Amino acid sequence: YIMATAGLSTFVELWDVRNLPSTKKLKSLASHCAGRSINSAYFSPSGKKMLTTTQSNTLDIFEDAHLASGVVKPMNSIRHD
């Protein structure tokens, strides 16, 4: 039930879709600041890993993203051109 949003804000945020729509202000479950725009975010088929691609030329891999809360950091970051 987790959805990721990412974009020009430099943040990828995780949301519990069971709370959408809501009349109160929503707060993301977890977030990560990439420092530059995030081009895309993908979950693995199992939902246990998430990959983001960024304008800082990195692929960031998050483990157990579906269980994350607060500020999260990637378990691995791979530079590319």
Topology:
Blueprint: E1 2-6, E2 11-16, E3 30-33, E4 38-43, E5 49-54, E6 58-63, E7 70-71, E8 76-79
Parallel strand pairs: 3-7
Antiparallel strand pairs: 1-2, 2-3, 4-5, 5-6, 6-8
Total beta strands? 8
Classification by helices and strands: mainly beta
Q: Low-confidence spans: pLDDT under 50, at least 5 residues?
A: none
Helix count from the secondary structure assignment: 0
Rg, Cα atoms, Å: 12 Å
State the separation between the terminal residues, measured CA to CA.
33 Å
Helical coverage, percent range: under 10%
SSE string: EEEEEEEE
Outline the biggest β-sheet. Answer: 4 strands, mixed
Average pLDDT number: 89
Strand content: over 45%
Q: What is the 3D form? A: globular
Lateral arrangement of strands in the main beta sheet:
1-2-3-7
Structure description:
With 81 residues, the chain is an all-beta fold. The chain is 0% helix and 48% strand. The protein is built from no helices and 8 strands. The strands form 2 sheets. Strands 1-2-3-7 form a 4-stranded mixed beta sheet, with no helix packed on it. The chain has a 4-stranded antiparallel beta sheet with strand order 4-5-6-8, with no helix packed on it. The chain is globular. 21% of the residues are buried. The model has no long low-confidence stretch (mean pLDDT 89).
